[in-house]
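queue> holo job accepted (nicotinamide-adenine-dinucleotide)
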Amino acid sequence: MENKVLKIALIGLGQRGNGLLTNLLCLEEVEVAYICDLFPERIEKIKARIAEANKPSPVGFANYEDVIAAKPDAILVATSWSNHVKTALAAMSAGIPVAIEVGGTHNIEDCWKLVDCYEKTKTPFMFLENCCYNRDEILATSLVRNGKFGEVVHCYGEYCHDLREEIAGGIDTHHYRLEEYKHHNCDNYPTHELGPIAKLLNINRGNRFVRLVSMSSKARGMNVYIDKTEKYANRLGGTHFDQGDVTTTMIQCENGETILLKLDTTLPHLYSRGLRIEGTLGCYDQNAQHVNIDGTINDEEFLQDGKFFQNQKEYSEYLSDDWRNITKEQMEAGHGGMDYVMLKHYFHCIRDHLEMPIDVYDAVSWMVVTALSAESIAKGSIPVEFPDFTRGKWKTRQPVDVIDLPKIS
Ligand SMILES: NC(=O)c1ccc[n+]([C@@H]2O[C@H](COP(=O)([O-])OP(=O)(O)OC[C@H]3O[C@@H](n4cnc5c(N)ncnc54)[C@H](O)[C@@H]3O)[C@@H](O)[C@H]2O)c1
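queue> job finished
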């Protein structure tokens, strides 16, 4: 198997399916042999892109069950959130390694089904949280592992992304976010910021999320955007959105750390994940691009001539090999290189029969924040307990990182 080209399937050929394809076309170890979407024109578009890259033509399907029957070597699922679990269950039951795209779940039962199916079949399952592989997040994790921040006490992360056009545009593109924002009020997309934090806090491996509390602001952004956007004003004017503009969630961990998350997707602002790690000896701040070890930067130095003091580059020896050796083409394949690094590791683990770097327990502990935050908000921001999806195994499971990190003495 090790040197064999994997014949893989890509299910869901919308925005993300197209983004994943750009990376897949750069990877010599895979052939996109099967593709699947509900819309025939999306299948044709992907076939044309694959032909343009001089790669063999894939077989197209409208139904994911036909993909599974074709027995690909691995499946990537990039469909709408509500479809991920049933596809993953069907793939695992058929013994086909499967990776699902990010997104939360409204359904705790689905989380248990994923865990039970994995434990029964032991079919490799991976959660495609690309931010766990991003340069900044890898650097922060490496600095933590090398003890530079002492004991980590608090972490912050946000998903600030102005998605008003994507959400309203669902009326034409069928994008699932439109219905999600109409009918749910929760942190619907917690994993980009929570995934890397959970990994560095060893969640499900000596630590666990215990409980959360969530709060949502009023919902105004979408209605103001729709009213001022001619193409939507008539068709979506007066739509009721349950989803508050800004949702904040506090999580308490078994080992005493706290995490603060912010979802902020319906107001005008620039993109940010804002990772911040605070420990007893130092702090990492993704937005300000600085590492502050035990007060080496003081408040006066921090803001010089109106510019933030940025010293992140001084710590590049702490990066993994993937990031030290990344090429321009790999970086340009999507999201600054993190997609390429993630997919390369996923296929490497499949070919060499290694444990998945982001496994089923990681996936469900992060996805369930959506369901738990909805419950907390609906009940007046009460604390809601996390299920222990490991059924006690978190106490003995050993910490592992998604990538080998350097040990600097
Ligand atoms: N990791 C990232 O950086 C990133 C970025 C964007 C989106 N995503 C994730 O990718 C997924 C897709 O998001 P998107 O923005 O591309 O959505 P999209 O609506 O553009 O694409 C989803 C596609 O799935 C297809 N689909 C839905 N149900 C299906 C089914 N039962 N069988 C076959 N095809 C089906 C739809 O027809 C559509 O073409 C989501 O989980 C999203 O959270 C991840």
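queue> The chain has two domains: 6-129, 132-321+360-395.
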